[in-house]
Amino acid sequence: MNRGLVLRLESLVQLRGACRQLRALSYRKVWGAQWKPVQASAQPLCSVLLHPQPWQKHRLIRVASAQCRHLATKEETKKKKKKIPLTRGEVEIRQKMTIEELARAMGKDIDHIYEALLYTDVDLDSLEPDSVLYEDHIKMIVQKSGMKYKSAKLKEEKERENTDACFWHLCCPHRPPADPAVLTPRPPVVTILGHVDHGKTTLLDSLRKTQVASMEAGGITQHIGAFLVHMPSGEKITFLDTPGHAAFSAMRARGTNVTDIVILVVAAEDGVMEQTIESIQHAKNAGVPLILAINKCDKPEADPERVKKELLAHDVVCEEFGGDVQAVNISALKGENLMVLAEATVALAEMLELKADATGLVEGTVIESRKDRGKGPLTTAIIQRGTLRKGCVLVAGKTWAKVRLMFDENGKAVDAAPPGIPVEIMGWKDVPSAGDEILEVESEQRAHEVIDWRTYVEQQEKLKKDAEVIEAKQKEHRMEYKQQQQKLAHLTWRQRKAVLYKANKHQLFQRPKDRREMAEDTLSVIVKGDVDGSVEAILNILDSYDCEDECKLDIVHFGMGDISENDLNLAEAFNGVIYGFSVKANDSIKKLADKKGIKIKLHNIIYKLIDDLKEELNSKLPPAVVETTIGEASVLDTFSVTVGKNKIPVAGCRVHKGLLDRKMKFKLIRNGDVIWKGSLSSLKHHKDDAQVIKAGMDCGLSLDRSLEFSVGDDIICYEETEVQQTTSWDPGF
C-alpha cells in the first residue's frame, strides 16, 4: 500500500517537472538573436508526453531523473524556498540589481526575466545571471510581470564617529583656544619672495653670513629653506627662502600661508617681473603685510624710483606715496642697508604683537619633506603652538611619527623647539606632503585612530568620485550601443554578425606586441625628486601639457629618493624614461639600466629637466617632410611625340629661376593649384637627354602619358627633406 503510494507520488512529480521543462522549451534561443517563442504549430503537451519524438526523449529522461534527486530531504526543499520566495504584489527594487537578484526578489526564475527582456533593446547574448540591469529595465520587468515596485530602503550605515585631530581655530573640541594669560612673544616668520635671480638667497646669505647661493645648482633656489637668524640686537627672525622660478608657484603659496611678514625682493635694474606680480598676489591672498627690498642698488643702471612707480599698478603703495609699505634700498651682495631692513622687519613684528602658546599639544606645518638614506623620512617644519620635544607623537596627513631626533638648519641636534622656530624632524613612518598640518596627539593609539579616520574619509570620497565616473561611462556606452543597434536594425542577425566581425577583424589577429606598438606616440615617464616640493613642482609643470594630439604624456610613477630597481622595472614594463631631480643612481643601477636599455636622465636644474623632457617628446613625433624649391620653369608651348603606338604630351619650357634636376621631384601648378606631383619621364635640351637644365635655358619635358599641358603652367623642381618636428607645448619658461 505504502509502496504504491510512493510510486504514484513519484510519477506525479516527474509529470509536473516534465510539464515545467516543456513550458520552458516553448522559448528557444536562436543563436545570435533574441529569444523567440515557438510557433503555434508546436506539438501539444499531452502528445509530447504520450508519443515523444526522438529529440525529446533524452530531455524527458533528464527531467525525470533530476526531479527524483530533488525528493531527497526536507532540508533541500527548505533551502529552495529560501532562494525563491513566494510571489508578492510588491517588489523591492534598488539600483544595479543583477538578473539573479531581481528573479529572487520577484519570486521568479531567471528564464522569466529573460522573457521580459524581449520587450527591451538589451542584447540577450551578452547577459549572464550576474549581469547588472539598468533601473528603467528593472521597473519595466516588474510592470510586465503584473507587479508593483517600490524602492528598497538603503541600509542605514552606522555613522562613524569623527576621530580626527585638528587645529583649535577650526572649532575642534579637543583643542580649545589658548588662554591669553599664557601667551608669550615668539619670533616672526618672514618669507622672502620675488622673481628668479633678483637676489633673495644672496640677501639671506648676507644676513646669515653663509654661502647658500654658491651651493645651489645654477644659482637658483629650488627648495624652501627655513633658517633662524639671530640679530645683533638680540631678536630672532625665522626666514623662509622660497624659489623665484616660475615652476615653484605652489612652494611660494605654501610659504605665505605660514608666514607673518613678506619681504618682496625686486632688482632695481629689472623692475617688476612675472613672479614679482605672482608673489604680491600670494601675499594678498594670505593677508600678510609687505616690506619692499629694492636690491642691486649698487649697479649703475639701478632705478629704485621706477620700481616703486611700477608697483603702484599692483596696489603696492610705498610710504613716500602715502601708503603703508616700507621700502628699503639695499645691496645684498655688498651688505649695504641690511640692518635697516632687519630693523624694519623687527618694528613691523612688534606692531603685529606676535604671540603663541608654548604649552599644551604641538601644532605646526610641514614646510618641506624628503627621504634620507640614513635617517629615513625627514620633514622641515615650523612650530606654531606648543613646544616640540623628543618622544612627542605627531600626525601629519596620513602618516605619524614618534619624534626621535630634531635638528636645526645647521644640522645640529636640538632638544626642544618652541613656537616660531624651524626644525627638522626625524621619526616619521612615511613621508608627509609639504603643506600638511602637524598635530600632536596623546598616544600612538590615538595617532592610529586619526590615520584610520583620514584614510576612511579619503576612501569614501574616492568611492563617490568613482561611482560618478562609472555612471557616466555606463551612460556613454549605453548611448553608443543604442546608436549601433539603430544603424544595424534593418539587417538580419547574420548580417549584423558579419558587419561587427569585419569592424573588429584587425584587432582579432593582432599579436600583443603589435598592439603595444600602436601606442608609439606615448611617452611614459617616471619622476623621482629629492624632496616633496620638487616633485610637486615638476608634476605641476607636466599637468600643463596640452599637446595630447601630438604625443601622449603618461606619468607612470613619481616619488622621492634615489633611483631604485623598482623604478627600472616600471620603466621596462611601460617602455618609459626615468627623470631624476637632485637624486642619484648608483653604479649597479646604471649598469642594470644600460643592460635593459632604459634611459635615466638626472638633473639639478628644473628648467634643464623640462628641456630634456621636451627633446624626448620631439623624438616621439614623426618627422615632417619639408619641400625645398630648387628651380622654376614655365610652359611656353605644348606638342606631342610618338613613341611606338603611343602619343606622349611634351611641354616646351624655359627655366627662369634656379635649375631643373631630373633626379629631383617635380610638380605641375595650374592657376595656383597643384594638379600633379612626381618624377619626370624625360628631360631634353634640344634633342639630347639632359640631367640638369640651368636658368635661362629652354628644354622639353614629359611627365605622364595621360597628363595634358597648357601654356602658362608652372613646373616646380623641389627636394623633399625630413625634418624632426618639435612639440608645441609651452611650459611657461
UniProtKB/TrEMBL annotation:
Residues 185-355 form the Tr-type G domain. GO terms for molecular function: GTP binding; GTPase activity; translation initiation factor activity. It is found in: Mitochondrion. Residues 460-487 form a coiled coil. Pfam families: EF-G_D2, GTP_EFTU, IF-2. Keywords: Coiled coil, GTP-binding, Initiation factor, Mitochondrion, Nucleotide-binding, Protein biosynthesis, Transit peptide. Its main location: mitochondrion. SUPFAM superfamilies: Initiation factor IF2/eIF5b, domain 3, P-loop containing nucleoside triphosphate hydrolases, Translation proteins. CDD domains: IF2_eIF5B, IF2_mtIF2_II, mtIF2_IVc. It comes from the Eukaryota. HAMAP family: IF_2_B. One of the essential components for the initiation of protein synthesis. Protects formylmethionyl-tRNA from spontaneous hydrolysis and promotes its binding to the 30S ribosomal subunits. Also involved in the hydrolysis of GTP during the formation of the 70S ribosomal complex. Belongs to the TRAFAC class translation factor GTPase superfamily. Classic translation factor GTPase family. IF-2 subfamily. This is Translation initiation factor IF-2, mitochondrial.
